Amino acid sequence: MSDFLLIHGSCHGAWCWRDLIPALRTRGHSARAIDLPSHGSDGTPLADVTLDMYAEAILRAMKGPTIVVGHSMAGFPISRAAELDPTNFERLVYVCAYAPRNGMGLADMRREAPYQPLMQAVIKAPDGISFGIDPAQARDVFYHDCPPETVAFALTRLGQQPIKPQETPIEIGENYASVPKSYIRCDDDRTIPPEYQRTMTDGWPERDVYAMDCSHSPFFADPTRLAGLLNKIAAGE
């Protein structure tokens, strides 16, 4: 069985993996999640956060061979962590996440997509350091197919997202390239266009790309199905 480390996306925290962790443990895996700096219960000031700070937090959380799962924005820090030290990375799994290209920032890649469904819901802080999501639009962009109780749970926990890590060009090379990778696309995603998720995996081996017919939040919309795919990936099927 495998050890899964789950890394959240923008404005989220470890809390978003609430339903997936028990689904993975039921299948015999160990699974845990962390709050990245300034997210969830982590008190790092928003202005201090960097992409490498995210990556270093991921490396500190690893305890041996680990499958590291990144959702959305987390595609960048999990990739950067693998570049800094690939030693314990058994595999990287991108869940409707940005699969980065060397020298590009996440915001560069977002702007490269054919359309920008999230931007209508983004509220930039007056100081320019972070952004949040309009609560009135959060369900539509993140959780439109999730149970009402789950949506209510999430809406009370969404936080601010530091902008600096997303504007930082990533440096990845041979270390990153040496780590096996899988991608789980969400075909009803209203945050990262599914078309762009396909673009990001152009040239990937077909066996390493999976799809779910759900929103940007498969960990809430269908945690059982997501756990099943992760179990399949861990088994090398």
UniProtKB/TrEMBL annotation:
Instruction: Extract the InterPro entries matched here.
Output: AB_hydrolase_1, AB_hydrolase_fold, MES/HNL
In terms of superkingdom, the source organism counts as Bacteria
SUPFAM superfamilies given in the database record: alpha/beta-Hydrolases (SSF53474)
Tell me which residues make up the AB hydrolase-1 domain: 4-227
Single GO molecular-function term? methyl indole-3-acetate esterase activity
The name of this protein is Putative esterase
Which organism is this protein's natural source? Donghicola eburneus
